[in-house]
């Protein structure tokens, strides 16, 4: 869908047909594999095995199996695949961009280190309550998504005619919104290309309707809270245990394949932190 919005004739071009077949085949494999996992988990749950994970919660929230329709089964599969697909690549890309910016801003990195050391010390496991004490790290992650939204845009189909910014837009038209573009516009963010986590300080003015890395409204990303907790835990553990510096000579170019990622990755040198200092 993303490609079709960008290029209306993409699917009609014979040069793209092999790619389209590959994508459709991958989608079929994902759905077949996901359906198998769901059935295996249902069998395990009937036998008294109830792992505490997302798949179990999705199955429980779907309702009683004996009254579920085929549509209910498809919805459950859709929800599972959404978490499975959207919850790993995008978060990994966000973490890559975050490490890149922290490596380029040692002062910000030192401030995050201090917060992590004070909030969790050398604890092996990070609790939900601990995350509430990592406010500056949250600001760093939000600022990362402002400059590098891993989903760089979204779209909405208008139900009826509207006037947007003085422009008449007829109903039925698909409008595309660029979170990447809006996050870098001077009219919304002062000095927009500067990496500044203090933009998201609790006392700072809130950037309404121009910051939407997870979209907005009732169709916003259902996994956004989970994704941000996941990112915060990974970054906190990385900073707790390691010092890292960026290797020289990297381009830090961005690659857009429907999601944003560092084009050549982010290369660092790592060493265990010495907490005896």
Describe the structure.
Its cofactor is heme. GO terms for molecular function: cholesterol 24-hydroxylase activity; heme binding; iron ion binding. InterPro entries: CYP46A1 (IPR039983), Cyt_P450 (IPR001128), Cyt_P450_CS (IPR017972), Cyt_P450_E_grp-I (IPR002401), Cyt_P450_sf (IPR036396). The structure is a single chain. This protein is mainly α and 277 residues long. It has one domain: Cytochrome P450 (Cytochrome p450, Orthogonal Bundle), CATH 1.10.630.10. The chain is 47% helix and 12% strand. The chain has a two-stranded antiparallel sheet with strand order 1-4. The chain has a two-stranded antiparallel sheet with strand order 2-3. β2 and β3 form a beta hairpin. The longest helix is centred in the N-terminal third of the chain and has 30 residues, at 17-46. It is globular and about 60 Å long. The model has no long low-confidence stretch (mean pLDDT 89).
Describe the structure concisely:
The protein has 277 residues and is mainly alpha-helical. It is 47% helix and 12% strand.
């Amino acid at each position: 869908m993303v490609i079709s919005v960008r290029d209306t004739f993409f699917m009609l071009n014979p040069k793209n047909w092999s790619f389209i077949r590959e994508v459709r085949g991958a989608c079929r494999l994902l759905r077949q594999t996901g359906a198998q996992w769901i059935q295996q988990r249902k069998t395990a749950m009937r036998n008294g095995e109830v792992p505490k994970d997302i798949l179990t919660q999705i199955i429980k929230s779907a309702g009683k199996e004996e009254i579920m329709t085929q549509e209910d089964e498809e919805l459950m599969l859709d929800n599972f695949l959404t978490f499975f697909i959207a919850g790993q690549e995008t978060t990994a890309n966000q973490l890559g961009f975050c490490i890149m910016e922290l490596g380029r801003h040692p002062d910000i990195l030192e401030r995050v280190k201090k917060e992590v050391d004070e909030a969790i010390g050398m604890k092996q496991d990070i609790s939900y309550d601990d995350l509430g004490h990592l406010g500056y790290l949250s600001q760093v992650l939000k600022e990362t998504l402002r400059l590098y939204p891993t989903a760089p845009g979204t779209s909405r189909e208008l139900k009826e005619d509207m006037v947007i910014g003085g422009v008449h837009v007829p109903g039925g038209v698909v409008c595309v919104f660029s979170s990447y573009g809006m996050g870098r516009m001077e009219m919304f963010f002062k000095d927009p290309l500067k990496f500044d986590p203090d933009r998201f300080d609790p006392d700072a003015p809130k950037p309404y309707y121009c910051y939407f890395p997870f979209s907005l409204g009732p169709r916003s990303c259902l996994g956004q809270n989970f994704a941000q907790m996941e990112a915060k835990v990974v970054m906190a553990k990385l900073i707790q245990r390691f010092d890292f510096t960026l290797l020289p000579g990297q381009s830090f170019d961005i690659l857009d394949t429907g999601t944003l990622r560092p084009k050549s990755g982010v290369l660092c040198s790592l060493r265990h932190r010495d907490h005896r200092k």
